[in-house]
Design a protein that fits this description.
Layout (H helix, E strand, L loop, with lengths): L2 H11 L4 E7 L5 H14 L4 E4 L10 H12 L4 H12 L7 E5 L1 H7 L1 H11 L3 E4 L9 H6 L3 E3 L1 E2 L5 H10 L4 E4 L12 H14 L4 E4 L5 H8 L4 E4 L1 H9 L5 H17 L4
Parallel strand pairs: 1-2, 1-9, 2-3, 3-4, 4-5, 6-7, 7-8, 8-9
């Protein structure tokens, strides 16, 4: 059983939803990333989503775009991200790490070489925004022991949900609204109505992200989703915190979210 599978199995037994915070590797600088990852895990993160800096994102709003720009100014590339994961794994062998990014850096490395290197570094899953299931490299990743995670959205038709279900592993990521990361106007009732449809067609846990900015909203999502993904709000905390306060501020925020989610009756 993979780290992602065992994490969700334990959370299901405990009747809890997973908390998945997102950060961009190398933001605010490469020396802090591993410390931030450890801080997130200590604060109650069940899975860490680690963004691979990319110059031309299509799903990320301005907040995460700025994070990528800061990381790229430090020269952080895909191999550096894998090195960070490997360093994290030296003392944390339990918390799953999912890389989120775009196809270009992986194509430059080569899919098979990347899959092998990712597995060796301790990566558990990969979410590549611009590789659709029709062009999936899930078989390559699966052979290396790395889960392939796909996005679903409010406009995804049933036939495509079925296709994703046949390719995905680990969990699926439901984009809670139309737009990019950090968008507002989250309709919880509408989101809740889509989750049973996805579950009926896909046997994997369903995580919900985009537009979740506080502990109250996270707790409400945790009532019906298997995981809550928080990205832009956490990246804003990094952006607005003095360097020597970043880890402490993130730890406090994630702890508050975890406490609120733990209080949910599912």
């Amino acid at each position: 059983m993979s780290r992602i599978q065992s994490t969700f199995a334990q959370l299901k037994a405990d009747n809890k939803a997973a908390l998945i915070p997102f950060i961009t590797a190398g933001d605010p600088d490469p020396q802090l990333t591993v410390a931030i990852m450890h801080g997130l895990a200590a604060a109650g993160a069940d899975i860490i989503e680690l963004g691979v800096p990319f110059s031309d994102p299509m799903a990320d709003g301005p907040t995460i775009q700025r994070a990528s720009e800061r990381a790229l100014k430090h020269g952080v590339g895909l191999r550096d991200v894998l090195t960070m994961v490997a360093e994290f794994r030296q003392t944390n062998t339990a918390t799953p790490v999912v890389l989120m990014g775009y196809a270009n850096p992986i194509e430059c490395m080569g899919y098979r070489d990347f899959a092998t290197a990712a597995a060796q570094a301790g990566v558990d899953g990969v979410l590549t925004v611009d590789i659709p299931p029709e062009e999936s490299v899930a078989e390559i990743f699966s052979a290396a022991g790395v889960d392939t995670i796909f996005l679903l959205s409010p406009t995804t038709p049933d036939v495509r949900i079925n296709l994703v279900a046949s390719k995905a592993s680990g969990f699926v990521y439901y984009v809670s609204l139309k737009g990019v990361t950090g968008s507002a106007n989250l309709d919880l009732a509408e989101v809740a109505s889509h989750i049973p449809v996805i579950r009926s067609r896909c046997g994997l846990p369903v995580g919900v992200g985009f537009g979740i900015r506080d502990a109250v909203t996270a707790a409400k999502i945790a009532q019906f989703a298997d995981a809550v993904v928080i990205g832009s709000r956490i990246v804003e905390e990094i952006e607005n915190s003095p360097r020597d306060s970043v880890v402490a501020n993130l730890t406090q925020f994630v702890t508050e979210v975890r406490i609120a989610m733990n209080a949910v009756v599912r």
